[in-house]
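ok here's EDD domain protein:
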Amino acid sequence: MKAKVLTDSGSGLSAKQASDLGIAFLPLQVTVDNQQYLDGINLDIPELYKMLDEGKMPSTSQPPLLMQEELFEDLQKDGYTDLILINLSNGLSGTNATLQATAARLGLNVHTLDIYSTLYMQKYMVLAANQLLQAGKEPEEIIEILKKAVDDSNGYLIVEDLDHLAAGGRLTPLAAKLGGMLKIKPILKVGKETEGKVDAWEKVRTFNKAVKKAAEKIASEVKDDVDNYEFFMLNGENEEGTEAGKQALIDALGKDVVIHTDPMYAVIACHTGLGSVGFQYAPKIEGVNI
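and the structure:
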């Protein structure tokens, strides 16, 4: 058996970053004004943010089928027999199911799970799987370790641009207008409870109240076990909101808490527009460094 970790750009990794880590990579497709881009190959986060700032309305779709087949054939030529497949949640995309079907057709063994999330949570699971594989763990053992972490993880997303959600069909124009007038900020949730879909959790007036509410909710969920969790924040071009979120987490969890921060990846930024802030957490996995 020869195994390799495979992920998509929902992890926030670029093709080069994944390659440098020895991870196989497939890009999600981003369509803007009828032009298709490959996320993490010919589209990066600053370019996407520039398009969003110009009022563009990107959409996302699965990695190209031809690229999937070519990658799997190349892996087989290199002697790989098994894939540890870590993709964005099945509730957000059919990518995982499509890749499983393609791999099965070509005779590759697949070891996978639904992470019920994406963004930094997906990145963490990918890095963990790769480090555990390099440490000599078997693929199915790795999947079981990741499942335990996924079961005790959660994510919250605070959206600034309600009009962008409405334009993308995820909120009615009337609700967006009323929400804007009342300064309502929806707190969205994604995790196992929501079956990996982005669902409404709470509505709060003002962004600062929303980040405080999300931080307090996370604190109540991890209780007194803070040292055994990893905490992540995603910055959708909202420095002030991200800093407020970090401070809210510190206030709720203690001054020694470590918070890993990344830009909001294309997989979510395409649908929320600029200004969103994300919170995620997951149990620390023994032997894994991020």
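+1. The radius of gyration is 19 Å.
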